[in-house]
Design goal:
single chain; mainly alpha
């Protein structure tokens, strides 16, 4: 494999890992945080979600 391709692939994997760690660090590890989206949903999004789940 060429050096440029290897560097690009490595940077991509590092970026994906960094995004995953940041998302994991930012979320609450509770069932309430998971089920209620950390209580950050607006009423309109909640209503649309409830309507779509019927």
């Amino acid at each position: 494999m060429e050096t440029g391709s290897l560097v690009t692939l490595t940077l991509y994997f590092v970026l994906m890992l960094a995004i995953g760690v940041y998302a994991w660090w930012r979320t609450a590890n509770t069932s309430e945080g998971f089920l209620l989206a950390g209580r950050d949903l607006s009423p309109s999004v909640t209503a649309l979600s409830a309507g779509a789940s019927d």
